[in-house]
Every structure is written in C-alpha cells, then in structure tokens.
Amino acid sequence: EPIALAQLVSEVLEQYEIAFSKKKINLNCILDDAIIISGDRDRIEQVIHNVLDNALKFSPDNKQIHVTLSLIEKKAELLIEDEGIGIPEEDMSQIMERFYRVDKARTRASGGTGLGLAIVSEIMKKHQGSFSLTSKLGKGTKVKLLFVNIL
Ligand code: ATP
Ligand code: MG
Fold first, then answer.
1. Cα separation of 5 and 36, whole Å?
2. Pocket lined around ligand 1, Cβ cut-off 6 Å
C-alpha cells in the first residue's frame, strides 16, 4: 500500500495539537512531502503515535518537540526529538522490552503499560525498517525511524 509519509505524519500530529498546546509545547516540524513508502498504513500510523505519545508524556511544559522527515541515502528518515526527562543509561537496553518502564515514580505520574516501544520495534521489523533511540537523562530523547521501502 503506497503511503504519503509526510501526510500521514501531519494527520497524526493534528491529533496532538490540543495536547501540545495544553502543555505549551512548541512543535517544530519539517517534512519532505515527496516521500512515498510502501507499507501497512495503520501500522505505520501506530508507530508514529506511540513515539509521539512518549515525546509528549515525558516532556515537561514549555519544551519543544522536533519532527523531521527527509530522504537520506534512498531511505526515509523520520526523527522525533523531545527535550523531556530522558532515559537513564542503565535502562536503555531494556526499554524496548514489553512492559518495561523506567521507574515507579515516573510510571505513576505518566500512565501507560510499557508496550508502546515494543510495538514500534515489532512493526518496524515487519517493514524491514529500523528504529533507534538515543537519550540523555534530563536533556531529552531522539527517536530515529528508517523506512527502506521507498516508491
Ligand atoms: P505505553 O506506551 O504502553 O502507554 P509506556 O509509554 O510506559 O507505556 P513505552 O512507550 O514502551 O511504554 O516506553 C517504555 C519506557 O521508556 C517508558 O515508560 C519511559 O520510561 C521510557 N521512555 C520512552 N520514551 C521516552 C521519552 N521520549 N522520554 C523519556 N522516557 C521515555
Ligand atoms: Mg509509550
């Protein structure tokens, strides 16, 4: 199924508009709208949702979220970066596991089951894509999604 990725990203972002404005989060968005990929639209939408949900949930008020879509070496690269609480080094290896959440305090405050990233990882694998996450505690988190099935 051909997917106009920039359009899909915009559609998902629209659903976050109110939540972003409630937290006074500024969205910084640069999307290359010529990129068409092949894949399962609903699944890719879920991936974008899960990553954005985390960016929003783990960002304090008045921060920025950057969303960038560009074509790099014949791959579509979608970056979602936040300036939120970040992830401690010692948890990094486990956060993609099902039900893993960093600690009780942040868990209670933010809600969720710990499935979001496990689902992202699974869907990206099914699309021969890749998913990586880098983070600095107290500084923010950057998620990189690479889609290889470019049309
Ligand atoms: P769910 O997604 O099921 O609602 P969740 O958000 O806790 O629950 P994941 O999305 O799988 O679960 O994320 C796992 C854990 O990784 C989170 O609980 C959180 O501690 C950490 N994490 C994920 N994304 C971020 C982020 N952008 N900033 C800070 N911590 C993050
Ligand atoms: Mg989540």
1. 6
2. 50, 54-55, 58, 82, 84-87, 95, 100-102, 106, 112-118, 141
Return the H-helix or E-strand segment holding 68.
Answer: strand 64-72
Please name the residue ranges forming H helices in the chain. 5-14, 17-22, 41-57, 104-110, 116-126
Q: What is the pLDDT of residue 105?
A: 61
Neighbours of 21 (CB within 10 A): 11
Cα distance between residue 151 and residue 4, in whole Å = 10
pLDDT at residue 98, rounded to an integer: 78
Spell out, as residue ranges, where the chain has pLDDT lower than 50. Answer: none
Contact 129, 62 (CB under 8 A): no
ipTM above 0.90, yes or no: yes
Closest C-alpha to ligand 1, atom 27: 55
How high is the pLDDT of residue 108? Answer: 62
What is the distance in A from the centroid of ligand 2 to the CA of 122?
14
State how beta strands 140-147 and 130-136 pair.
Answer: antiparallel
